[in-house]
Amino acid sequence: MNAGDGEPGTVRPGGRTARVRESVLRAAGDALVEQGFDRLDLADVARRAEVGKTTVYRRWSTTAGLVADLLTDMAEQSVPRTDTGSLEEDLRANARLVVRTLTDARQGPLFAAVIAAATCDARTAEALHRFYAVRVEEWAGCVDAAVGRGELPAGTDAREVVRAVSAPLYYRLLASGDPLDEAVADRAAAAAAAAARAGVYVS
Predict the structure, then answer these.
(1) What is the dihedral sign for C-alpha 180, 117, 48, 66?
(2) Residues spanned by the domain of 32
(3) Could you point out which of 8, 74, 172, 177 has its C-alpha 20 to 30 Å from the C-alpha of 104?
(4) Domain membership flag for residue 203
(5) pLDDT tens digits for 150-183?
(6) What CA–CA distance (Å, rounded) separates 101 from 94?
């Protein structure tokens, strides 16, 4: 596939194009946090980014394409998984990273806005699913390593363990509104580790 054959917003650029992409994605994130997906407007994003409207429309074409690229960028910028040699320590690091992200003054509202957008836009939902698939796959390695060390039963579904760590944290962000802090993160990690050791996630 040639570079020009990809969907708008999926080509990885270099040089000046990379700088334009960075500016536009930051502007799009700002607009999402302030206004939500339903009021996201490509012309407004271009104004905020101080780039030509034609550039934004040509590269991304739709707000859904812009949000999809924003999620791609967020996945690229995500912190690599920790490898401490201990399942519970690794899961705790994962949970604390999720909490830091969700309580960040910018990242937290941005994730909430993107998740809200995904409920009403199929392309945004697809991009969000890809984003989380990448993150789950990244952290699944620590569970697979724990199986290899004999910490967990053979056949443990690593991806389900990772999902079990973050699920209660996202519930607090999106549903209950209960506080998110390191104690909550540590408890989520400990619960997932205990369930995994008990064989709950054996396929």
Answers:
(1) positive
(2) 3-74
(3) 8
(4) no
(5) 999 999 999 999 999 999 999 999 999 999 999 9
(6) 11
